[in-house]
Amino acid sequence: MQYYNKKTVLVSGASSGIGIAFCKELASYGANLVLTARRKDRLDALARQLRTSYDCEVTVIPCDLSDPAGPEALVRDIRDKAIAVDIVINNAGFGFNGTFLHGSPEKYQQMMQVNMASLVMLTRLLLPDMVRRGSGGILNVSSMAGFLPIPYFAVYSATKQFVINISWSLWKELQGTGVHVSALCPGPVDTEFMEVARVDRKKAAFRGTQSPESVASRGLRGLAENAPLKVSRSFLRIAYLLSKWVPVRLGLIIGGMAMKK
């Protein structure tokens, strides 16, 4: 995809799942990569694979985005290395499936920091240079869970609604600047996210689990097109449109049935 050729792309949450899929597809398009996540060993292994398979430039900068100081430290390291980031893929995130009272306050604080605050800070810190250059892109990974409130997935679904809303707002604000903004909304994806979030894999498979590769491909296409919102499957577009008409109380019943253990 020509849009990504010779661009430098920062991918958060690059050490697993959709993050790895993003990196491999971007490398195949001729992009150079900055990989960040907590697990340096995984990032280093992925970087070696990408350099060997695609002959691209890959920089590894480990960072814990659950730390409020993480985004500024990451951007400082990027600038110290004289790297100009053309595109940011805010992919880092995690969830928790269970009753609200079963999740610890610390877990919710970290989830809100990673899924929302760090996304906002990375975007705010790197966006001005894109606007000055007259080109760039912000791809925010949200979720179908962001379309309606979901019992037993309460904090996660709320954070993903935030991601959808801020993506739409920035898409509008940045029209005419040359900077693309898109929110990617996957359904269930076969990644380790499910173990972390305590999601039942059998239930997820019944609802139609996707591969990380298909989701990443859809998201990258959406950003190149400057689509403000992209669902990871065409038929999920119907679910998105229906969510606009489903009464909240009915949505709560449907969502609760889907996520209750």
Annotate the secondary structure layout.
Elements: E1 8-12, H1 17-28, E2 32-36, H2 40-54, E3 58-60, H3 70-80, E4 87-90, H4 105-133, E5 136-141, H5 154-173, E6 179-185, H6 193-197, H7 201-206, H8 212-224, E7 229-231, H9 236-243, H10 248-259
Parallel strand pairs: 1-2, 1-4, 2-3, 4-5, 5-6, 6-7
* Beta-strand content estimate: 5-15%
Question: What's the total helix number?
Answer: 10
Query: What order do the strands of the largest sheet run in, or round the barrel if closed?
Result: 3-2-1-4-5-6-7
Element order: H for helix, E for strand: EHEHEHEHEHEHHHEHH
What general outline do the C-alpha atoms trace?
globular
Mean pLDDT: 89
**Which structural category do the helix and sheet elements fall into?**
alpha/beta
- How many domains? 1
Broad CATH class: Alpha Beta
Quaternary structure = single chain
Q: If you compute it from the alpha carbons, what radius of gyration comes out, rounded to the nearest whole angstrom?
A: 18 Å
Output the CATH topology: Rossmann fold
